[in-house]
Design a protein that fits this description.
The protein is of the alpha/beta class. The protein has one domain (about 5-275): Rossmann fold (3-Layer(aba) Sandwich). The protein is built from 9 helices and 10 strands. It has helices spanning about 5-10, 75-80, 105-115, 130-140, 150-155, 175-185, 205-220, 230-235, 255-265, and strands spanning about 35-40, 50-60, 65-70, 90-95, 100, 115-120, 190-195, 225, 240-245, 245-255. The strands form 2 sheets. It has a 6-stranded mixed sheet with strand order 6-7-8-3-9-10, with helices on both faces. Strands 2-1-4-5 form a 4-stranded antiparallel sheet, covered by helices on one side. α5 packs across α6 (about 175-185).
């Protein structure tokens, strides 16, 4: 998998301490994802909506983090700001040690294509392209020479090594999501952002996709940040973060679905900031 992947595998053991004292344990001491004082406000004055209210968070390389919360809690805004898909009103976002908050749109687009991977509920595959061409699309968009050997490698990893010439319409929903995951992995990204990746899948297929995400972390040293409403999906993560009213109000480490579901039900209002001071520096 290359030198970078080998290095990340060695770092994955430290992932559990990623939040302590605001330090990441990734390459060169840089965290995979770092948010400092991130706020996102839509509108002004009385009509303003405060989607994020000062997020401070550090995620290590080789970690799997799930983000949950009630409807309107800020989950989608959090992912969009962390991934550079939206710009925070205030605060700083770093990916792999690179400050992206004030980055030009052209540079930000290039960074997303080369250093980030995305998996969405809707798959977002191009129907006119083959499976292999869909997987290689990030390389083409970044102006790189398509690496067919690398495409074959990641397709084999997600169990679709024999489907490279198929079109998306010839695949099941679960297979299409596997293609999307292979596309996210092909550039060996710093971070994979997943937004409800199992929302359109049946229980069995969802489990297969989640196991692949877990394997990408454990076997390839990938870093995954996943927004989900499903406690079963969140249980695959190393840590679950709970958002309410735009703030991180709680977290659980390696919890089972029942415990996660109970914690979700208990969320009624943001807890005092000092309660979780050890988690967010």
């Amino acid at each position: 998998m290359g030198l970078r992947r080998s290095k990340r595998r060695n770092e994955s053991a430290a992932a559990g301490a990623a939040y302590d004292h605001g330090q990441g344990h990734g390459q060169g001491g840089a965290a995979a994802v770092e948010l400092r004082g991130v706020r996102r406000q839509y509108g002004t004055r009385r009509g303003a909506v405060h989607a994020l209210r000062g997020i401070d968070l550090v995620l290590a390389h080789g970690s799997f983090t799930a983000v949950m919360g009630p409807s309107g809690s800020g989950k989608s805004t959090f992912l969009q700001c962390a991934a550079g898909l939206d710009r925070p009103t205030e605060g700083s976002v770093r990916l792999g040690g690179t400050e992206i908050t004030g980055m030009s749109e052209n540079k930000l687009t290039l960074l997303r294509r080369t250093r980030l991977g995305f998996v969405f509920q809707a798959f977002n595959l191009l129907p006119s392209l083959t499976v292999e061409q869909n997987v290689l699309l990030p390389m083409r968009l970044a102006g790189e020479r398509p690496d067919r050997r690398r495409a074959a490698e990641v397709l084999t990893q997600v169990g679709l090594g024999d489907k490279s010439a198929r079109r998306p319409s010839e695949l099941s929903g679960g297979q299409q999501q596997r293609v999307a995951l292979a596309r996210a992995l092909v550039t060996q990204p710093d971070v994979i952002f997943a937004d409800e990746p199992t929302g359109a899948l049946d229980t069995t297929t969802a489990s297969e996709v989640l196991q692949l995400l877990r394997s990408a972390v454990d076997g390839l040293g990938a870093t995954v940040v996943m927004v989900t409403h499903d406690p079963i999906a969140a249980a695959y993560a190393d840590r679950v973060l709970f958002l309410a009213d735009g703030s991180i109000v709680d977290s659980l480490d390696r919890a089972d679905p029942g415990t996660i579901a109970d914690r979700m039900r208990s969320l009624t209002a943001p807890a005092p900031a000092h309660t979780y001071a050890g988690m967010v520096a």
